[in-house]
Amino acid sequence: MWLALPERRPASVTWLAAFVLIIAMGQLGRALFAWRQMAFLGDLAFSLPPAVWILSGVLLGAGGLAAGTGLWLGRRWAAGLTAAGAVAFVAYAWLERLALSASPLAGTNTAFALAATLIILTWVAWILTRPQARSFFGANHERKQQN
Predict the structure, then answer these.
(1) d(CA 63, CA 108)
(2) Taking all residues of the chain, what is their mean pLDDT, rounded to a whole number?
(3) Could you tell me the residue range of the domain that residue 90 belongs to?
C-alpha cells in the first residue's frame, strides 16, 4: 500500500497562514495586556470596558490560531473558518473603532482604515479562491478520506 503524501502548500496559503497566526498572537497579547492593565485602562476615557478587550482578544486569538493552523496543515475547514474569521475580525475592529470614536482619544485616519480593510478582505478572498488553494484544501481532504 502506498502512502499518499499531502499536496504541497501553495506559497500564497503559507503567507496567509503566517499572517493569520501573527494577527492571532497579537490578539492574545492584547488580551493579556488588557488583563494585566485592567485598573489602568478602566481609569482612561474609553467607552469600552477592559473586559471587552480581554474577551475579544481571547476569542479572536483562539479563532485565529485555529484558522492559521488549519491553513498550515491544509484542513478543508480552514478556508471557511479563515473567511468567516476575516469578516468577524474586521467587523469587530470597525465596531470597536466606532465605539472609541466617541472618546477624545480617537483620532486615527478613517480613509486609511477603510482602504486597509478592503485590501485585507480582497487579499484573503483572492488567496482562498485561487485554483491552487482550492486544490490544496480539497486534495488533502480527499487523500485522507481514502486512507
Answers:
(1) 27
(2) 85
(3) 11-35+48-140
